[in-house]
Amino acid sequence: MSQIRPRNSPSIEDPELLHSRKRFPLASKQRSKKAKTSQRGIMLKEDVVKESCRRFEDYMIHMIVEEGKTDDLMDMEELLFYWNNLKDPIFIDLVTRFYGELCIDLFPCDHDG
Q: Which GO terms describe its biological process (predicted)?
């Protein structure tokens, strides 16, 4: 005979088993909440980086157009040339993170906390 119990077996009524099952949904909700919070934090971080990079771009445009500093433009052109020639995803990620952090440090957002 088979040792498999049907779904309505008394073991399902076991209070200890039910208690352990009640804990798992709570844990999964907490994990889900943490994941959403961390995703929200990542999105906020990306927004801060984007805003800081926009400020950097505005600053570069101001220097080139209003102050006529073409040496800085040539440096940026050289930087973009090397950036465009990067092929390895690891280096691309590294340079992207560095550029983002640099923009945040040099051109922070007003609402940055």
A: negative regulation of DNA-templated transcription
